[in-house]
Design a protein that fits this description.
Length: 171
């Protein structure tokens, strides 16, 4: 007996694995962000998903980062930015960062309290999906697509049943 290919089961398995991986990352002190601009091109392209290791103490952070490491931090205005460390003063808790694309300006000095984590790895363009998941119109579109699929399936099912009924009457 030949088994029928079930796309839904494959999608369910893939989503379950992704959710499990995200849960493990979050439980092990990692954080997930996405890069909104092209300031880190070509190393971390715009819309990349970045996985950061967060540090609980200032000493732990300074013992694990150095010049040319990429970090994610929150600016004074509340924006989340991923840039490269170009200067560190551990004693005075001063970190300067800069985007690597072209002649990017040096960011304002930050301290450990603004650092969200050190970039461990990035996945190009997957951040766009994360960004979309955070918007209300994405969820409305998704609900509309699901509703359309349900409606179309029920129309095809009803049409198939009616055509069989009509064939039976004609015989």
């Amino acid at each position: 007996m030949k088994k029928k290919f079930n796309f839904g089961n494959i999608v369910t398995v893939i989503l379950s694995i992704l959710l499990l991986m995200i849960l493990v990352l979050l439980l092990t002190g990692h954080r997930i962000f996405y890069v909104k601009t092209s300031s880190m091109d070509p190393d971390i392209p715009q819309w990349s998903l970045v996985i950061d290791k967060s540090y609980k103490t200032k000493d732990d952070f300074y013992n694990n980062v150095g010049l040319d490491d990429d970090i994610t931090f929150k600016t004074e205005s509340g924006n989340v930015v991923t840039h490269r460390i170009i200067y560190i003063d551990r004693i005075n808790d001063v970190i300067k960062t800069q985007g690597i694309k072209g002649d990017a300006a040096v960011d304002a000095s930050i301290g450990f309290n603004q650092v969200l984590g050190k970039v461990i790895f990035s996945i190009p363009f997957l951040g766009f999906l994360v960004m979309m998941l955070q918007t209300w119109y994405f969820w409305i579109m998704l609900l509309c697509i699901i509703a359309a699929i349900i409606i179309i399936k029920s129309i095809f099912k009803e049409t198939k049943n009616n055509s069989l009924h009509l064939k039976f009457i004609m015989i």
